[in-house]
Amino acid sequence: MDRLLRLLEENALATHEMLAAQLDTTPEEIKKRIKQLEHARVILAYKAIVDDERAKRTQVKAVIEVRITPEREGGFDRIAHRIAQYRQVSSCFLMSGGFDLLVFIEGDTLQEVAGFVSEKLSTLPGVLSTATHFNLKTYKIQGVLREAVVNEERLKVSP
Amino acid sequence: MHLPISIVPPTSTIPPVTSSSDFIAEHVRDIPHSGIRDFFDIVQSMEGVISLGIGEPDFVTPWHIREAAIYALEQGKTGYTANLGLLRLRQAIADYLSTDYHLAYDAATEVLVTVGVSEALDLALRAVLNPGDEVLYHEPCYVSYSPSIALAHGRAVAVATREEDEFKLRPAALRAAITPKSKALLLNFPTNPTGAVLTAAELEEIAVICREHNLLVLTDEIYSELSYAEAHTSIASLPGMRERTIFLHGFSKAFAMTGFRVGYACAPAPLIDAMMRIHQYGILCAPIVSQEAALEALRHGRPDMLDMREQYCVRRNFLVYSFRKMGLPCFEPRGAFYLFPSIKTTGKSSRDFAFGLLKQQQVAVVPGTAFGPGGEGYVRCSYATGMDQLQIAVERIAEFVKQ
Fold first, then answer.
1. What gap in Å lies between CA B248 and CA B271, rounded to an integer?
2. What whole-number distance in Å separates Cα of residue B93 and Cα of residue B109?
3. What φ, ψ does residue B157 adopt, rounded to 5°?
4. CATH match of A60-141 with 3.20.20.140
5. For residue B44, how far is the Cα from the chain centroid?
6. Would you call B54 and A151 a contact, using CB atoms and an 8 Å cutoff?
7. Chain B partners of A158 at a C-beta cutoff of 8 Å?
8. Which of residues 133-152 of A touch B (CB under 8 A)?
9. pLDDT digits (tens, 9 = 90+) for A85-109
10. B166 and B77 co-located in one domain
11. ipTM of the modeled complex
12. Rounded to a whole number, what is the distance in Å from the CA of A119 to chain B's nearest CA?
């Protein structure tokens, strides 16, 4: 199961026939297993990893450290869920260390992001403080380097 | 008017005109260029070629290993090391061989760090061969074996391996090739170019013959980490074999470090000492930066190595499936990163197939004959190439085969 997931994480567009060949099984078996994984929500979604700069997008991205007060019987979960459901939030994690939630947000403008933080996030009951860091440049995203390391001088035939 | 002043001596003292190639020693003159050489020249000059002809990993050396090399430079590590290599590295090698290969070598006296496993093999041959001694090796094989033996003034004796035997070295074939002049047996399992392996039981059958005929074994296990079927066994770990084996290995394939040029030889102290004497005068030591990088590979490189092996395995499965689907039968390689499909059904020779494929579909594979006459009817396809490239290559080869 792990090997199939790994291959899909590398290339979700691989055909069933291709995956079957790589894992020495049948396309039918692959199809069945993928269905199971989707059904069990092990696979949550398939998405393209886009280079915003090359796509000429001017989106603003930020990471926010959020400190919150855990609730009796709910811990951090209820408030984390409230935050995670905002459209602007792309990822949300509970962290160890000096703050509690790490929230990744995206907006069309700086104002939109700033507004979200000051009007929505900071005013939520239970939120103690926020610290917002804006992305300046991307070097690697979801395991993919923006500039691949290519050796142009690699020999085309060698023993 | 100036009179021309000649400093040319009278003609009678000029030695007879000679060609500069006359200076070349006879045993070197007889060495042919590598069988892939002319092919290489053509491929290198073409654009848009997808190459399955590459005998090195497509992965760049894992970053932490490259970073260790940079750090070594920052630290000013730019001098010679001990002839045998950094003791820290030799100790790490001895520990690695102990845990992974069940081999016990003393880091101080039984491990020699070399410039790639190629140097280690060359040293081993030069250290043990007297002129005319015969060295047995299995073929199809890596292109260097026969020339390296000849350069060490030995006589190369090929033992053919066959597809119907899964390219394994058969004891009967080995026995048939032994003469009173046989001195050593050179093994390379997993094999470049066939991907063959020998199991522990099969190695024991070979070991029996070596002990019986007092043969020294030179075992080039450069692909040993890249074994896909079962755990690799070294012949040196079999009973009674340690004292008659020179174990040769390196970092190029498993850790994607070909350009660092680090290999090593392990053997009983007298053999290592003999090899070291050649090494100290010829090479002095392997480059210190590469040795530092190799140490990092052994200390922290295992996850990278396992990850690369998994990727090779997946590619192998894909290639085996694809070749069989297009009607080219192929033995499923058990190790290394080569597929050796039979192209006999196409009616073409290996050379014609490879040149035709290159010309018509811009895919480079190496004619099997580059690895010995027994390679006729086969081509070597390396899967040290990314999946996206392999997919296109397979489509093009299928198109070529259809015609």
1. 13
2. 13
3. -120, 110
4. no
5. 21
6. no
7. 36, 40, 53-56
8. 149, 151
9. 999 999 999 999 999 999 999 999 9
10. yes
11. 0.81
12. 43
- How many structural domains does chain B have? 2
Query: Where in the sequence of chain A do the CATH 1.10.10.10 domains occur?
Result: 2-39
What are A109-148's pLDDT values in tens digits?
999 999 999 999 999 999 999 999 999 999 999 999 998 8
What is the band of B10 on the pLDDT scale with cuts at 50, 70, 90? low
What is residue A98's DSSP assignment? S
Q: Which of A21, A24, A157 sits opposite B40 (nearest CB)?
A: A157
Domain A2-39: assigned CATH number = 1.10.10.10
Q: Does A85 touch chain B (CB under 8 A)?
A: no
Asked if B112 contacts B279 with a C-beta cutoff of 8 angstroms, the reply is: yes
Question: Residue B217, Cβ neighbours under 10 Å: how many?
Answer: 23
Cα–Cα distance between B70 and B65 in angstroms, integer?
Answer: 9
Q: Which long-range contacts (CB under 8 A, 24 or more apart) does B26-33 make?
A: B27/B150, B27/B151, B27/B153, B28/B151, B30/B150, B31/B147, B31/B150, B31/B151, B32/B147
Q: How far is CA B322 from CA A24, A25, B96, B278, in A?
A: 11, 13, 36, 47
B160 and B116 in a common domain? yes
- pLDDT over 90 (residue B32): no
Q: How far is CA A79 from CA A61, A66, A85, in A?
A: 22, 11, 10
Whether residue B4 is contained in a domain is answered as no
Global pTM? 0.90
Helix axes A2-10, B302-325, angle to 10 degrees: 90
Q: Which residues of A touch B56 (CB under 8 A)?
A: 154-155, 158
CB proximity list for A157: less than 8 A, separation 6 or greater: B36, B39, B40, B43, B44, B51, B53, B54, B364, B366
**In angstroms, rounded to a whole number, what is the distance separating the alpha carbons of residues B186 and B359?**
36
* Residue of higher predicted confidence among B69 and A73: B69
CATH code of residue B169? 3.40.640.10
Does A7 touch chain B if contact means CB atoms closer than 8 Å? yes
Q: Which of A20, A22, A159 sits opposite B34 (nearest CB)?
A: A159
Spell B170-181 as b/e; 16+ CB within 10 A means b.
Answer: beebbeebbeee
B211 lies in the same domain as B311: no
Residue A157 has pLDDT above 70, yes or no: yes
Residue A112 CB burial class (10 angstroms; 0-12, 13-18, ≥19)? middle
